[in-house]
Amino acid sequence: MNTITTDVLIIGGAGSGLSLAIFLNRLGISSWLVERHPTTSPAPKAHYYNQRTMEILREEGLADKIYELGTPAANMARVGWYTSLGGDGELDHKTIYLMDAFGGFSLAETYERDSPCRSANYPQLRLEPLLLEHARTSPLAHLNYHHELVSFVQDADGVTATVLDRDTELQYEVRAKYLIGADGGRKVGPALGIEMDGIPRLFDMVTVHFAADLSAYLDDDSPMIRWFLSPDKGGSWGSGVMVALGPEKYDRHSEEWLFHFAFQPDDPSQFDAESVVPRLRDLLKLPELEPRIIRMNDWKVQGVLARRYREGRVFLVGDSAHRHPPTTGLGLNSAIQDTHNLAWKLAAVLKGQADPSLLDSYEAERRPVGARNVNWALLTFQNHLVIDAGIGLIPGAPVEVNREAFRLLFSDTAEGATRRQRLHEVIQSQRTEFQAHDIEIGFAYENSPAIIPDGSAAPVKSPMGDEHIPVTRPGHRLPHAWVTRSGGTISTLDLVGRGRFVLLTSSRSLHWQKAAKSVVGAAVDVVAIGPGLDCEDPSGRWAALRGTEPDGAILVRPDGHVAWRAEDSDRSGQLAGAVKRILGRDAA
Fold it and tell me: Is 470 within 8 Å of 491 (Cβ atoms)?
């Protein structure tokens, strides 16, 4: 049997697998990716990418292309709730509520202050080919579609896997130092006996990807997501949600759309094109609609988390480690952030810069974030039922009772005003989903062997997840501030990452230059920010955020998270020891 040798074997060629192959290539690590399907997924799946994910993709030179091809910022500035698109009844074609979202309108200043990137909207069915195209330019990334993992065993030095080439029906062997399960939990996790805890089946969903001209029924291009609440259908998850899929236009003239239907696990309904088209017409109140069904797929709404992210030389990422409801859009975002966290650690170990114990920090850091994201997505999914209650919908009530609730909501009466104000106050609680600024970029790593605490208190977290407080406290993502270098404006995030440790200081202190040179086994770049230094801080924002004296320093890991912080240059002699500890070499 033919044997392939590689550094990392990746099982799964969707968003997490492709992103990991790309990140490893940049770090000089070879990978062999195996995907059982012949192509990337044709299903829409995820579509929203938050600011932290876009910062990571920006580092790879992909962000601008996604912005160019995806939804314009003006067309993803809000979400809306509606009764229907058409119809001429008293409750038809009405806007129930509009909420600013994803950095739009009232949120713009805050989101722009905290990141050099805006969020993006681009269907995963188009993102994956873009990632694949980029990965194919990576000489160390070997991509094998229509190849399937048959089995694997691991030993003290690596993993040996048997793979089936489904085109030739021939098997071959792959010998790798590490194996990564990016297969959505289909084979790798179960083969290791890793159980998933949580809610395995909350709702069943059907996603309909269809083509239709809906431009005549839409008069506002700002909402990215349109929720339909019908008094006849029983509220949020009894109705549906619609998103424009482009591919050329992401406004009312979008050529394609996705529509999510939810139904109970014991619902006997059969969902196929024959039954879904009448349901679309009925819900949207468009009896003449002739949609072209491109694809339908059904899936389970879950909230589950793997009990562990690692077994020896095998790691789980993305949906193999955590599966969320779609609300807040944390699924693919978490997956890409998983692989970004793991890639630099694998590279450091494989290059001999770090002790293998560094890899323990992957689960220590990412599993708590995964647990928080699963719980947050469940909360925001369930909170749509609170919105139903804010309208006055009563589950199981006669249709006429729920219709009356809508009539009163829209009525030009004192009670109508009260009901609209009540809905406003209730629906604002859904900012946990659509304005989750801190949830998206404010996650921090605590109790990790690859972080050295400095004793400072964590910033107070917003209970609603909407207010982000940028800090340089160890474990947190380096805050964004615009600085100037060689006459150009760049972000502080542009100074870090790309496989390097970077020490940020605000003085010409030779102590830090000397300390950086004393580090053994890993290069540490020193960048000084301040008047007349490597970078200027014209707005003074970096000075306000740095959290140290001017001659202090902040050590940033290759993934952009602060690893260690020194108040002043008196601690410069501790830098070499700090890097050694972060890389696990003191344990060795």
Answer: no
Nearest-5° Cα angle at 432, 426 to 436:
145
Average pLDDT over residues 440-448: 97
The residues facing 505 across adjacent strands are 528, 553
Q: Say if residue 247 is preceded by a cis peptide, omega within 30 of 0.
A: yes
Residue 326 to residue 303: CA distance in whole angstroms: 10
Separation CA 143–CA 133 (nearest Å) = 11
Global confidence as pTM: 0.97
pLDDT tens-place string over residues 18-36: 999 999 999 999 999 999 9
> What angle (nearest 5°) sits at the alpha carbon of residue 552, between those of residues 550 and 557?
125
- The distance in angstroms from the start CA to the end CA of the chain is 37
Residue with tokens 């968003």: 15
Evaluate whether the domain defined by 3-68+123-194+308-358 bears CATH number 3.10.290.10: no
Q: Residues 205, 262: contact at Cβ < 8 Å? A: yes
E strands in 229-325: 240-246, 256-263, 292-306, 310-311, 314-316, 322-323
Tell me, rounded to whole angstroms, the distance of Cα 146 from its chain centroid.
Answer: 26
- Start-end ranges of CATH 3.50.50.60 in the chain? 3-68+123-194+308-358
In this structure, which amino acid lies at residue 487? G
The pLDDT of residue 476 is above 80: yes
Q: Which CATH number fits domain 451-582: 3.30.390.10, 3.10.580.10, 1.50.10.10, 3.40.30.120?
A: 3.40.30.120
Q: Provide the pLDDT confidence category of residue 265 given band limits of 50, 70 and 90.
A: low
Tell me the C-alpha distance between 75 and 72, whole Å.
Answer: 5
